[in-house]
Request: fold
Amino acid sequence: MFTLPKLPYDYAALEPTLSADTLHTHHDKHHKTYVEKTNELSQKAGLDGRPLEEVVREASRKGEKPLFNNAAQAWNHAFFWHCMTPKSAEPSGALKAAIERAFGSVDAFKDAFVEEGFSHFGSGWVWLVTGSEGLKVVSTHDADDTLVKDGLFPLLVCDLWEHAYYLDYKNDRKSFLKAWLDKVANFAFAEKQLAAADGQAEGFRYPSPGANDDGDRREPPGEGEQRPRA
Reply:
C-alpha cells in the first residue's frame, strides 16, 4: 500500500508565504485522502503493489477515471511538496541558462508562469516542463499531470486548487503565485529534475508501496527520485 509521504520540512517552515494551517489542511487532509482512495481503487483494479507512476498511466490508458484522479493527485502533491523549500534561491547554473534560452530572462519566465496559473480556469496545476522544444510553461486541469503527457518532463509545479492557497490568500491566486515563485519555489530541485531529464541524475519518484518512512523532515537531496522515462 502507498503511504502518505511526510513533508520535507516543518509545517511552519514556509511561513509567511504559506501558513502551517494551510500545510496541515492540505497535506494531512487532502493529500491523505487521495492516497487512501488510491490504495482502495488500485487494489480493486488489480494494480496493488505497482509503482504509483504505473498506476497513474494504467488508469489513464484504461479510462478508469476515479483511480486516475486519485492516483494522479497523490503523485502531483508528493511532487509539489518537493517543489517548495524554506531556503529558496533564484535559478542558477544549467537551469538559469535553460530558462534564459526559453523565456529570455528569469523575470520573463516568472511572468509567464504567473500568467498561465492565474488564467487557468478552475482547479489544476501549473508546470515548468522540459522536452524536445526546451523549457515551457503549461497548465493541466484537475488531476491531469505530466506522467501521461508524452515528451514532457516536469521540473516544477504549483498547485492551483483553492485548498492550496485559500486560507492565506482567499481568492487572490495571482498574489499567491507571485509569492510562491519569489519566496518558496525550489529551483534547486528543478535543476536536479533538469539533469534527470538529460539522463545525468535520478528524477523524482513516489515512494514505493510499503516503503518505510523514517519521519525525518529535511531538504531532500534526491530522496524518492527516478530516471525519466524514455
The two ends are 26 Å apart (CA to CA). The CA atoms of residues 112 and 140 lie 15 Å apart. Helices lie at 20-44, 52-62, 65-82, 93-103, 106-119, 166-169, 173-184, 187-197. The beta strands are 124-131, 134-141, 153-159, 203-204, 225-226.
